[in-house]
Design goal:
- The chain is α/β, with parallel strands linked by helices.
- It has 2 domains: 135 residues, Rossmann fold; 187 residues, Dehydroquinate synthase-like - alpha domain (Dehydroquinate synthase-like, alpha domain).
- Helices cover 53% and strands 12% of the residues.
- It has 17 helices and 8 strands.
- The strands form 2 sheets. It has a 6-stranded parallel sheet with strand order 1-8-5-4-2-3, with helices on both faces. A two-stranded antiparallel sheet has the order 6-7.
- The structure holds zinc ion (ZN).
- The site of zinc ion (ZN) has 4 residues, from helix 12.
Length: 334
């Protein structure tokens, strides 16, 4: 892990106007939709604009080799646009400005870059974003359910902290009580502001970005994502692996938080209420109930085969009664 550097975050209505103050040769990496949104709001013409096609490692590495030199790279859009900008800035050691137009993932704040190799996600690189423009006007134009999805990687602290403590007790894995407290604070603040997150208000946007910032900081200090990544993420990874389809991360992690809180016997009603109030679509309507049932029944096997971290999945069996009960609940929310 590189040394953590706190980012400079400019936030507000029409904050993207700041792009006009950038000097030097600028390369923007974006996609059609966010680029149109930005152009409607702001007349800004960088020297070069590249449209992101995919996040295959080969694609981004080819970009690094083929794109002409630039002084500043600006990533405008969702996770893939920010990650492409991060990749190029990392490879070229260039100044980078990120303008997330949606906050469904924490990519604008993290130091790693999610690329795909043979269709599987792999994290490469290390570059902490230094300058981020959080433009409320742009972000609020995205479908609200996509922005609400960002809450998943903070809400996941509920089940992840349980797993971390369990692993500490059962396997002696190091546990940092101070960092666990910081994580629990983030979870509490998310809970208190759930309505703001749901309604994608300026305060909700700023809070979510700030929670991501703090989470990235304490995870970097710890050297792992343990405080926010537990068995709920195993559910998410398994459903994607099982179906070979891509889902909104917030939907899958939402499902994972509810189902694993049930398995952990860790305030499942609180977990359900929290993810519901944040607007996470935890019933994952894009997957069939049969697929979700299979995902839960084979969770342990998947976890063992994938060599994933220790969690409640190692100590408790997902029995058929629990599976049926969970599917019953999901039906009610579909
Ligand atoms: Zn996640």
């Amino acid at each position: 892990m590189p040394v953590y550097t706190p980012p400079l975050i400019h936030s507000g209505a029409n904050a993207a106007t700041l792009l006009k103050e950038l000097t030097g040769s600028i390369l923007a990496v974006t996609m059609e939709l966010p680029w149109q949104l930005l152009q409607r709001q702001l007349s800004w013409r960088p020297a070069q604009v590249h449209f992101v096609a995919n996040m295959d490692l080969e694609t981004v590495e080819n970009l690094h080799e083929s794109l002409p030199p630039f002084d500043v790279i600006v990533g405008i859009g969702g996770g893939s646009c920010c990650d492409t900008a991060k990749y190029l800035a990392w490879r070229r050691n260039a100044r980078m400005v990120l303008v997330p137009t949606i906050i469904s993932v924490d990519a604008p704040l993290t130091n790693t870059i999610a690329v795909r190799v043979d269709g599987k996600v792999r994290y490469v690189g290390d570059i902490f974003p230094m300058e981020i423009i959080v433009d409320h006007t742009l972000i609020r134009q995205a479908p609200p359910e996509l922005n609400r999805a960002g809450a998943c990687d903070i809400a996941s602290i509920h089940t992840a902290l349980y797993d971390w403590r369990l692993a500490h007790r059962k396997t002696g894995e190091p546990f940092d009580a101070d960092i666990a407290t910081l994580a629990a604070d983030c979870l509490r603040e998310l809970d208190e502001a759930a309505a703001e997150i749901y309604n994608v208000t300026p305060r909700g946007i700023d809070l979510l970005v700030d929670l991501f910032r703090r989470e990235v900081e304490f995870c970097a200090r710890l050297g792992s994502s343990r405080p926010e990544e537990g068995s709920e993420h195993i559910v998410a990874y398994h459903l994607e692996h099982l179906t070979r389809r891509h889902f909104l991360h917030g939907d899958l992690v939402g499902l994972g938080i509810y189902t694993m809180a049930r398995l952990q016997d860790n305030e499942p009603n609180y977990a359900l209420d929290l993810i519901h109030r944040c607007g996470l679509r935890f019933a994952v309507a894009d997957a069939t109930l049969e697929e979700i049932g299979q995902c839960l029944r084979r969770l342990r096997r998947f976890k063992d085969e994938a060599g994933l971290f220790y969690s409640v999945v190692d100590v408790k069996e997902v029995d058929e009664g629990l599976v049926q009960d969970i599917l019953q609940t999901l039906r009610r929310f579909r």
